Amino acid sequence: MTTANESNLPILEVQDLHVSIDGQEILRGVNLIVRAGEVHAIMGPNGSGKSTLANTLAGRPEYTVTSGKAIYKGLDLLKMEPEARAREGMFLAFQYPVELPGVRAWQFLKAAMDAKRVHAGEEEMGAREFDQLLRSKVEEVEIDPELVRRSVNEGFSGGEKKRNEVLQMTLLEPTLALLDETDSGLDIDALRIVSDGVNRLRRPDNAAVLVTHYQRILNYITPDQVHVLVDGRIAMSGGPELAEQLEARGYEWVREETGAVVE
């Protein structure tokens, strides 16, 4: 049987995407193809539209698509509700993970697992089976077991919130992971754990889009392609070496090379 990777089919294809927030245009024609088995890094200066791209793809309602297309696994992504995108295997790791008071982390995780399984035509996971799976994943991502018994992210440190998202991602095994500056505010140990989680997820049949402002996480996660988003457009693309150039030279040289506006 031919896999998506072998047939070189894209998991995500973004075509001339324009997005506004409160009437202000942020994305001004983004084009991007992410194929199975690939990790793409989106870099750029503050305000360039990196997080807007990730959040728009995930379906957050405050982002208004004014034109363009986004095709996910052959589906018209922009016509899908956010929960439908999640059930189809899309995962968003937030830059600032939200707290859910009163919702136990393990209950949240089991509900998410069951929703995905039911959507795929499978039965819900039994309590004992899920507990065994959760224990193994908690150990794998080096998270305090006590955290999964507490309310989601309530009272968690910044690093604990990011580790909790890696736990969610490890359990759900998404087809497309959107990581919105998941390295923000992490110390070296937490950065390593988050990066290990992303690397363990990599398979020939899935993909990830990693939004980051700095090159440091790319010391741990080697992307297949790096894209520089400037003024709402991808101004430059290249291999992992492009991230090193950005670290050394900043974003001003992108303007000089391409004529893009760097604010």
UniProtKB/TrEMBL annotation:
Gene3D superfamilies from the UniProt entry = P-loop containing nucleotide triphosphate hydrolases (3.40.50.300)
Q: Signal peptide position in this chain?
A: none
InterPro entries for the chain: AAA+_ATPase (IPR003593), ABC_transporter-like_ATP-bd (IPR003439), ABC_transporter-like_CS (IPR017871), FeS-cluster_ATPase_SufC (IPR010230), P-loop_NTPase (IPR027417)
According to the entry, every stretch annotated as the ABC transporter domain falls at 12-256
Pfam families associated with the record = ABC_tran
| Presence of the UniProt keyword ATP-binding in the record | yes
A Gene Ontology MF term for this entry? Answer: ATP binding
Q: Which ranges form a coiled coil?
A: none
What keywords sit in the KW lines?
ATP-binding, Nucleotide-binding
Q: Record's PANTHER family?
A: ABC TRANSPORTER I FAMILY MEMBER 6, CHLOROPLASTIC
Q: What is this protein called?
A: Probable ATP-dependent transporter slr0075
Its source organism is Geodia barretti (Barrett's horny sponge)
